[in-house]
Amino acid sequence: MLFLSKILQSVFLPLGVTVLLLIYALRKKRRWPVGAALSVLYFSSIPVVGDWMIGGLESHYPALPIANVEPADAIVVLGGIFGPPVAEGMLPNLTETVERLEAGIVLKQAGKAPCLVFTGARLPWKGRGRFEGEDSKVQAVRRGVPAAQILVTSEVGNTADEARVVAAMMRVRHWRRIILVTTGWHMPRAAQLFGKAGVNFIPFPVDFRRDTKRPLTLLDFVPCADGMHNTETALHEWYGLLFYAATSRWRGEREGL
């Protein structure tokens, strides 16, 4: 199911739509799909579009100074931090979301909660033999966090799983509130799912991509890989928000019957 959801999402992202339009143009010998494909490719890959879409997500939960974070029972850091696994003793492959790990460690060392929690993410296509949270724990211990104060959840495959597992952990341990750490553009979807799971949390978003103070330049209208990356990342999150909203409404209507 996890593989299927990823494949379906890819079809409706700009690159997937571009490929489908070009295939249609070749099969039907039409010109208009080629123009449509080029338009999709251009507008989705210019920085001004990607920044605007990412900024729309990040604006929901602004950055919060550590000094202003209220204490909680635990700091929960969501997965998606590591790249391909490495041999024992090698430096880890950290992705662009490494700020999640760093923020969790800083919050713990600032005394914002007695416990640091990493989720047991393990995506099958990454070839990981163990939970990502275990690698996060190793890095946190190396930075001075006591191992006894770090927990790793059971295996999770997506944000919805993380919300359910953390909610269950809170009930067992009688936690009342957590600090939720994830990337700024991911926080709206994470907040929706954790709220739905009944988790009382303080959002602590990190890794903001859009610089709201930077003026537009000609380069913002020149296609580039970063522009496409931001656009597809934002669309992935918006699709997730719409999907969970639709399924929640459908379930509510069924229960109402």
What does this structure look like?
With 257 residues, the protein is of the alpha/beta class. Helices cover 51% and strands 11% of the residues. It contains 9 helices and 5 strands. The protein has helices at residues 2-11, 14-28, 32-45, 47-58, 99-109, 132-142, 159-173, 187-196, 225-256, and strands at 74-77, 116-121, 150-156, 178-183, 201-206. Strands 3-2-1-4-5 form a 5-stranded parallel β-sheet, with helices on both faces. Strand 4, helix 8 and strand 5 form a beta-alpha-beta unit. Helix 4 (47-58) packs across helix 9 (225-256), helix 7 crosses helix 8 and helix 8 (187-196) runs parallel beside helix 9 (225-256). The longest helix has 32 residues, at 225-256. It starts with a helix and ends with a helix. The model has no long low-confidence stretch (mean pLDDT 89).
Task: Outline the fold blueprint.
Elements lengths: L1 H10 L2 H15 L3 H14 L1 H12 L15 E4 L21 H11 L6 E6 L10 H11 L7 E7 L2 H15 L4 E6 L3 H10 L4 E6 L18 H32 L1
Helix pairs in contact: 2-3, 4-9, 7-8, 8-9
